[in-house]
């Protein structure tokens, strides 16, 4: 039955080459842990992506209950965590995954660095990776405020003060981030929510696409 | 193709690029202006707020004075309580903001037993002299802000935060 549906679609749209381009590619021996166990270090990039997918999915579901409003943000997080079935799990996935994605990304960066994979012709992909790193840190920073508890508030106060210490444009950056020159409040929360949920993920998708297209075009770097 | 003649194809390319540019700018301009509005907004002047601190009770030892005012944060109005360190300096009343100029923590008068007569920030051990001047060699890069002060019926009133003029 499934085969027939596949054939019916394939006959009209010729999807087999697309599928082959995406999924069917060689895995060289030196990056295959089945041949050399130490090759597991080549898995960190894929693991980072895997956790990123978990973050996107759990984040999508969290917004079904979360409201970015000073009166209700904390209450909605409390409710979704303690009253909603599996709320603790879904929020837990997003909470722990946020730290894990940074750890995995860092290990992936170390692997690329120590195998020298950033060298010609893959310099551009390293640069895109640095951009992804920055966006991930931005996602961590903006997401940290959203539960709107004391820890979130004061961590963000300190974070914004660090940004404000930049010469000349610091004050402007602070206002742009917080939405007000002096108050860290309602407008900060909505801004951080918008940045966390729309702006940074959009930029992340673009850079991830570039990252993957480049690695497919150039292939995995050779053995040491 | 002769020199300096614009071909039909070039003309169309320029025209479409120009029109497309205007269309893109027409879409982006409102959104960008919308996003940067907080930077360009002018803030309303802060009014004086009455505190429950009697002027007569103020000594030359800084005391923490809490005061509550209505704060407008975009669409959200709420009563906010802030604090000031208040003391007499000669005939002048000094009211200093407790917000550390390093990263925004809260400073305490003689918060560190090892440093008498100084304000102390517990976060990174920032210190300030009594007039708010930051102690060299500690993290803060500037003096504590001060509040404008006034008196009403024997009680202290506090105004907006301004840069320190005592140090």
Please characterize this protein's 3D structure:
The complex is a heterodimer of chains A (224) and B (167). Chain A has 224 residues and is mostly helical. Chain A contains 9 helices and no strands. In chain A, α3 packs antiparallel against α5, α5 packs antiparallel against α6 and α6 packs across α7. The longest helix of chain A has 33 residues. Chain B is of the alpha+beta class. Chain B folds into 2 domains: 41 residues; 118 residues, Rieske Iron-sulfur Protein (3-layer Sandwich), CATH 2.102.10.10. Chain B is built from 2 helices and 9 strands. Chain B has a 3-stranded antiparallel β-sheet, with no helix packed on it. A 3-stranded antiparallel β-sheet of chain B has the order 2-3-4, with no helix packed on it. Chain B has a 3-stranded antiparallel β-sheet with strand order 5-6-7, with no helix packed on it. In chain B, a hairpin with a 2-residue loop joins β2 and β3. The radius of gyration of chain B is 27 Å and the shape is elongated. The mean pLDDT of chain B is 91.
